Tricarballylate utilization 4Fe-4S protein TcuB
Amino acid sequence: MLADLIAEARRQAEICNACRYCEGYCSVFPALHRERAFSDGDITHLANLCHNCRGCYYACQYTAPHEFDLNLPRALAEVRQDSWKAHAWPAGFANLFDRSGVAMAALLSLGFALMFALSQGMRPENGAGFYAYMSHGLMAAIFAPAFLLPLAALAVSLRGYWRTVGGGAVRWADLRGALASAGRMRNLKGGHGDGCNFEDEDRFSHARRHFHQATLYGFLLCFASTSSGTVLHYVFGVEAPYGLFSLPKLLGLPGGFLLCVGTAGLAWLKTKADPGLGAPSAWGGEMAFVLLLFVVSATGLILYAATGTAAVAWLLPLHLGTVLTLFLLTPYSKMAHGFYRLAALTREASRRPAEPV
């Protein structure tokens, strides 16, 4: 299956390489035009560089009904999706999430929420805030492996991907360039900086870039909030609950708000975009991931607002259930695409010719 998808993407890349009309649109085309022939690793690299902004499709003169029938965004999206599944470890889970992403995320979230609700029967005799409902030791025993094991699975997957695309030793300068590009979402600005055509072929828009940035920075702020709480607890002996002006809250509240806005916006744009310019079979899994991130952030904010009320008893299990589901599905959901995209951008930075001194 992946071999057929790569063969079709190679056919289209060869035509694009001869045409060169879209030169400068995004990182894909400088990388594409640098080659005379495309190995399977080259096509996989191009696919993970593609941000699916779709500007090249709407500018192309060789789309259907032309006999060349080019649809490069879809061809690369299908290779990209299958490359993640091919390198996923353990194998098989990614295919399951693609087929039934929404149902799988919902069932896991509800199942884990029920588990956390039942665990309140073992609540500590004393404790403040969330620890009045669930002990810190129980949370740490569940979430520490649920966070570390998916990261290990991702590391194995990325190692396989890196070998496929011919990556070598990672230099700090290349990684720094990749991080800067990802942070600015540079490739969603479009070839002339006017934005991309993701949701409307006749209109350039920065909406997708802005929603992506809100999602990225919201997630990073939430992660920083959790990390700061961990440091306060284990290093300084300052235990939760934390006040409004504490570091975990100053990072977590704006992070949760940005994550809500970003994921809601991305889900809305996804309903407006043409599914034929992406990987149609992955639509459900991608939407499930976006909605799961939204529910994680929304339940976190609602839980904070409900602090001190009886609603915490059922809101806390629901929030923890969605967080645990997000962690466990990370290597097999679109969450993995951020890691692969960063790897592709790092690989591309290493292959650019050195600028003259």
Q: What stands out?
A: The chain is about 65% helix and 0% strand. The longest helix spans residues 136-164. Residues 92 and 151 are 17 Å apart (CA to CA).
